[in-house]
TrEMBL record:
CDD domains: P450_EryK-like
Record's keyword terms, sorted: Heme, Iron, Metal-binding, Monooxygenase, Oxidoreductase
Family: Belongs to the cytochrome P450 family.
InterPro entries according to UniProt: Cyt_P450, Cyt_P450_B, Cyt_P450_CS, Cyt_P450_sf
Signal peptide: none
GO biological process: cholesterol catabolic process
Domain of life (superkingdom): Bacteria
Key word NADP present: no
Name this polypeptide is given: Cytochrome P450
Organism whose genome encodes this protein: Polyangium jinanense
Amino acid sequence: MLDLFTDDTRRNPFSLYAEMRAKAPVLHVPPLDLWMIFDYEGVKRALHDHDTWSSIVTTQTGPTPDWLVFSDPPRHTLLRNIIQRAFTPRSIANLEPRIRELSRELVDGVIERGEMDLVKDYAEPLPTMVIAEMIGIPVADRPRFVRWSEIILNLSYTMSGGEAATRAVAEHAALKEEMHAYVDDLCTARKKAPKGDLLTRLVEAEVDGERLTGEEILGFFQLLLVAGTETTTNLLGNTILSFFEHPDELARLEADPARLLPTTIEEVLRYRTPVSMVFRAAKRDVMIHGQTIPAGKFVLLLMGSANRDPKQFQDPDTFDVGRDPNPHIAFGHGIHFCLGASLSRLEAKVAIPDLLSRLRGLAPASDAPWQPRKALHVHGPARLPVRFEPGKQLAVAI
């Protein structure tokens, strides 16, 4: 049976992706009764055509959470319009000075040591702190925030079934009650005393007389815990992994950072897609590449494979920091295009130069294969030990 979820395959799924695109771009996996789509054309079509493909999915362990990403029009349209009022480009751009401060503080915490776990010491805490502050979570509650995120990410095991899936659903059900009480308290406090945070904007946002319900705010809160942190964590870890494997491309970036930093970020998103697969369900029988996917069936769209499709990208297995154009679909496509894409790009724009300029001689600290992230639908390292030349803290924050 095809198994995408072994550690070896999750570290390097790309040869398997290439084989499947060539032999079976649409594949049925009978033991799990799910379908997979591997090629760019098929994946992009499914992401775009919400009249044919539903984001409301039922796995072996039951329906997916009641979140924005697992909704269809017209409800999706209403929710997204309301949330966009709170998640504005200006509010994202205004975060840049604070992201720079947080990045500097994290590097200051390790720079004198000459070694660190790049994921645990930097790539995880940076987006977590940014999202926590953006939402308006008190500093003292951040450990709880991290625990919640880990439990929610474990829902990815519902796609593979078995004991891990059952346990993940049970843990999430218990967590939801805890989070419901917490978010209700925060919303009540914001109604009484509004602040300049995302939670206040969500409580106050209104479109055509409609506001978000408490359940809808909770759903978006849960989604932010995952989408607002995991994508950036993997983007940063995958950037450093790519440079370790391709030092000549790092030299290119360092020789012309103003021009190549934006294209570098997009190439990492394509080359090592952080969220490598998403769920859909066929609303009706769908013919694609000569295969008929029956109505109601659970489908995995392999964006990590689509972004390596040679029919769309020249030399797709080459890491090219100057690649342009680069029409990757790492953030999705169509009505479900990631609301947090601009935030993730901004965090990478700050973090990558900060890491490369301050951690001189950055190199792997271990020859052991890197351990994949726990969530099955993402691609990136759970740990990344690195060494560098010890430096000094920067006494004055930006």
